Amino acid sequence: RRVMCTPEDVDISGALAWAEAIPRAPNGRMRAWLDVEADAAAGVPRSMLWTASLVLLRHLEAEHAPGHWRGKRVLELGAGMGHLSVGLSRLGATVDATEAGGSNSTGDGLAALAAWSRRLLAERDGGGVAVGDDG
């Protein structure tokens, strides 16, 4: 089934906003990934965002009724920058995200993901974040 997006769609997860920000290839198609430049001030290491996570997030948001993800528990393996995890969290799911690759395996990457999660939870009226590192 093809997911159609209209201006009336609500973008709670942020997938549409991210998709609009991704530069298009010369043929007009969405690129397979977006290089994310490091931002030392924000604590963001250089990484990449795979656009497949945008497509999956939009599909998971559009295929279910509003509130479907509220109270659901999600485990994302290979979360990369955490876009899918954060989007599902914005939809109400409790998400545990893991990443063993380069984008979040450093202390800086984990700290940035934890800070992003804390801001998100604060927007959702509180909550807690547990980040573990056995390294």
From TrEMBL:
Organism annotation: Emiliania huxleyi
Native organism taxonomy: Eukaryota, Haptista, Haptophyta, Prymnesiophyceae, Isochrysidales
Gene3D superfamilies the UniProt entry points to: Vaccinia Virus protein VP39 (3.40.50.150)
Name assigned to this protein: Calmodulin-lysine N-methyltransferase
